[in-house]
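Why does residue order matter? Because the sequence determines the fold. Keep that principle in mind as you read this record.
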Amino acid sequence: MLEAEVLDENTRAVDFYSRLGMETHRLLDCYDVPAFDKANYGGVEIVPTGWESIVPFSSSVRSWNPTWQNNDDSLMAIKGHLLCVQATDAAGLTGFAAMIPESQTLAQLAVRPDQRRKKLGSAMVARLQELATQKPLHVLNADAGDGSFSHFMTHLVARRTVGQRALRMQL
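Structure:
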């Protein structure tokens, strides 16, 4: 499988990849999330952890899979360069977030369905910003079809920066 992402506005590249036989798999959005003034975790303990402790459970809390550069295997390859946080309860992992501090990129963020809309995602973003440098975070390649995630970005006062297309071709 050959995969690529192309900016929506780059119609020449979209046409080129289409002529090669690549097809749009899904639409993606990118955002900048401003720094929070104050971290409020709502009584939830959000603890730093390593990616290797999250990855066995990551798919159980996600609604959609990340694109290739932020998928579980790609993050495992750079696990020593990630800043990760997690929250748990008696049933296990309730949510996690992983960022690449060098680029301030939020690589993955997921909350278990029964824990959504309880400010856990906001708390994890705030915790990452507290542990990192408090700069705005960049969210790349979020599934544009997930209205809940778009609403979450609005809640965080995130600014959509660009749209992209995830392209695929079987080899």
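Residues 95 and 162 are 26 Å apart (CA to CA).
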